[in-house]
Fold:
Amino acid sequence: KIKEEFGLKGEKQLKILYPELKEDIDLMFIALKLAPRSKNPKFSSSLSPSFQSVFQEAIEALKKGNLEKAKRGLKALEKLNSKEPLTLYVKARIYFETGKFEDAAKLFRRLEKIHNFPLPNEVNYYLGESYFYLRDYIRAFNYLQRIDQDSDLKIKAEARLREINSLKNSTLKRLLTRFSPKEFEKFLKTFP
Structure:
């Protein structure tokens, strides 16, 4: 109705008429501007075009490093459908991008357990990266290895796997020159 009455250019008019709803108007217009482009086959048919649009906008913002825009997108997603796993995915990505790797890993593990979640490679990648930054190299290695060969993330995952192996080899060399049973035991628990 708003789109018909004000058109996509009516954003300023609405903000003047309803200044107390400025933030809601911003979120609504993000959804309206993107609705025609949201034809992603990975989305469940039960998701509204508005949700799909806001989700894509939040993901694009994350890719561009625009955390404020991604956070506004998350707020909108939570209003549209807080129980949708894709909302949780955006929240986990924001945690990851802000360096909250433990919180990100918790949410990504929840998503990992959801049957038919549409972004399994992304979940495995970000779980692997989270564990890498938490210095849990065994878990990082295991999650990064799960990424499908045809995924866009495979090259990045393989680079990280090489880095883990390099860390493993340099640590092993250091341990062999200054052999300490305690350090060697820690090494065995740290690396795959």
Notes: The mean pLDDT is 82. Residues 154-177 form the longest helix (24 residues).
